[in-house]
Structures are given as structure tokens and as C-alpha cells.
Specification:
The chain is 12% helix and 27% strand. The chain contains one helix and three strands; from the N terminus they run βββα.
């Protein structure tokens, strides 16, 4: 599963959005728009993290998988 990970200017995760470009019924290639100082990373969510539903736990685990 691919997700968007939004980070702030320090590299801390501030949000995640599930999906691939165009999967939200929007224009193909649509992705979350970062606020000033933020970056959007489109990553493949590791299988072992797919079951995590708690955002804090997911963000902690994702830190190891960001470029």
C-alpha cells in the first residue's frame, strides 16, 4: 500500500494520507499540498505497518522508512 507522509521543516511527521495519486476520486496525480516548510513523501508502506491504526505508533515506525 502506498501512502503520503507529510513532514515539517525539522523532518517530523505531521500527517499521513492513504492512497495513490488519483485514488480519492480527484484529478489523476493529485496529492496533498504541503504548507510552507513541509514536504510530501509518497512511499510504499511496509507490510508490517499496514495493520497499525494508532497514528502516533504509525508515525514513530515510519520515521525509520523515510528518505
Amino acid at each position: 500500500m502506498r501512502i503520503y507522509v507529510i513532514t515539517d521543516d525539522k523532518g517530523d511527521i505531521v500527517g499521513t494520507v492513504q492512497g495513490t495519486p488519483g485514488s480519492h476520486g480527484d484529478v489523476p496525480g493529485m496529492q496533498p499540498l504541503p504548507l510552507p516548510g513541509q514536504k510530501v513523501h509518497h512511499i510504499e508502506l511496509p507490510k508490517e505497518l499496514e495493520g497499525l491504526r494508532d497514528a502516533d505508533q504509525l508515525h514513530q515506525q515510519l520515521k525509520r522508512h523515510l528518505p
